Amino acid sequence: MRQAVGYVLFSCLLVLLQTTLIRYLAVGTVGPDILLIWLVYLAMREGQATATAAGFFLGLAVDLLSGSDSMIGLAALSKTVAGFTAGFFHDENKVLQNLGGFQYPLITAVVSLVHNILYFIVFLQGTDAGWLNAVTFYGAPATLYTTALTLIPMFVFARRLRTQL
Amino acid sequence: MVKRLYDIALLFKEYVLFAFFAVVSIGLLALNDTPQIRSLRSLTVLSVGFMQDALSVVPNYFDLRRENSTLRELNLTLTDEVSRLREARLENIRLSQLLGLKEKGHYGYCAANIIGKTLQLLRNTITLDIGERDGVRVNMPIVSESGVVGRIAATSSRYSVGQILLNRELRVSAKDQRSRVDGIVRWEGGRMLTLQNVVKTMDVKPGDLVITSEYSTLFPPGIAIGVVNATHLTPGSLFQSVEISPGVDFTRLEEVFVITTQPDTSRTAAEAKIKP
After folding, report:
1. Can you name the residues that pair with B212 across neighbouring β-strands?
2. Residue span of the structural domain in which B166 resides
3. Chain A contacts in chain B segment 29-48 (CB below 8 A)
């Protein structure tokens, strides 16, 4: 129970960070998605069901806090799919090994790409901009940025893993 | 049963959860009214329409049976309606032609339906559904849009009987419209009429229109009788025999007009004075 409350509180903190401060980390228009990093962590740690539910609520929170420009439900949908996708990589016997190894950033890259493709397909509907261009020039760099940022928690978990061994 | 469903849902809880949250997300998305969502809506409608169109080739037996039955009934109703409309159209054409005739003439006309007809006898007649109460009198001319039909031979209050051109007792003063040659039209049997009393030297050719002449005391002048079909020269005779094809098709005749304008009696009275 304490762990669940901790997850919720930490999620709220990350949502606030994502919607306020993360823009200062942006390079041009490309910024990382720390919620996806957290979502992959939850998937590795708690499994697919938790990650799917967490994806929905995190996305919904982002939708609600993003102001009038966003489409309510779009981030919820894309993060639900992201959480569900991340859940396929869950292995309860190798949780720490996966989080402390390069599996973590790799899985984040895959999940982020799926997330961005789905997001842009819906977001660019009916506009002149091609979603493939948007994914190439915005989604893919954002995926790389997010993947690179995953290296930080990965090294933290790697150190913890070495300590345990 | 519920327990079994619960077990299945628990077994696939990840998929159930995913489906639930995805549906909720899509529902929330659908509530937006942005250009993207409008575009997605139209895309969805297009896709659903395409799917329905593709699946419509799969026949539903019970629907087809009911549809067949409905279509059969509809077919019967429509066939009946088409038949009645066709009949009405033909009647309309005939009546329009009659109306045209009525508008062209300067006489009083009384429309009548033929309710009886004989065509196989030597004295053929037609029975009309109008009589004395409609102003019909003996000797009044009967015409149609194609020309002379005959004359009234007998009347009752509601009905009248007319001698038609195919009647040996009826003779009509006539003339060739082109050459103005006079003669008497009568029927001697068969399908053709004959123009009699035409001298051999007179100019009558096949194709000439034969009309009623001013000499007739029954028929107004200028009404078509028929077209010259052939001329025959009989050796030893002063006259030629002119064969006329009647303008009126008596086998198909259904409606006629009776000309109710009476002939000028003073003319007939004057002519009677000098008759031998």
Report:
1. B174
2. 109-262
3. 29-32, 34-40, 43
By C-alpha distance, the chain B residue nearest A122 is B36
Verify whether the Cβ–Cβ distance A72 to B29 is below 8 Å: yes
- ipTM of this complex: 0.88
CATH assignment of the domain containing A131: 1.10.1760.20
Query: What separation in angstroms does the CA of A106 have from each of A102, A150, B89, B96?
Result: 6, 9, 82, 90
Q: Partners of B161 in the beta sheet?
A: B127, B154
Q: Best mutation site among B17, B31, B44, B45 for testing chain A: the one with the most A CBs within 10 Å?
A: B17
CATH code of the domain in which B142 resides? 2.40.10.340
Question: Could you tell me if B109 and B257 are in contact, meaning their C-beta atoms sit under 8 angstroms apart?
Answer: yes
For A67-117, write each residue's pLDDT tens digit. Answer: 656 688 889 999 999 999 999 999 888 888 888 888 999 999 999 999 988
Choose the final residue of a domain: B70, B89, B104. B104
A3-39 confidence digits (pLDDT tens):
889 999 999 999 988 888 887 888 877 888 999 999 9
Which contacts (CB < 8 Å, 24+ apart) does range B94-101 have?
A: B94/B145, B94/B254, B94/B255, B95/B255, B97/B145, B98/B144, B98/B145, B98/B255, B98/B257, B100/B145, B101/B143, B101/B144, B101/B145, B101/B257
C-alpha B174/C-alpha B169 separation (Å) is 16
pTM: predicted TM-score of the whole model, two decimal places? 0.50
CA dist B92 and A138 (Å) reads 76
Alpha carbon of residue B276 to chain centroid? 50
CA pseudo-torsion sign B24, B30, B34, B40 = positive
Number of domains in chain A: 1
Q: What is the pLDDT of residues A49-58, one digit of tens each?
A: 999 999 999 9
Phi, psi of A123 (to 5 degrees): -65, -30
Residue B10 lies in a domain: no
Cα–Cα distance for residue pair B218/B263, rounded to 1 Å:
7
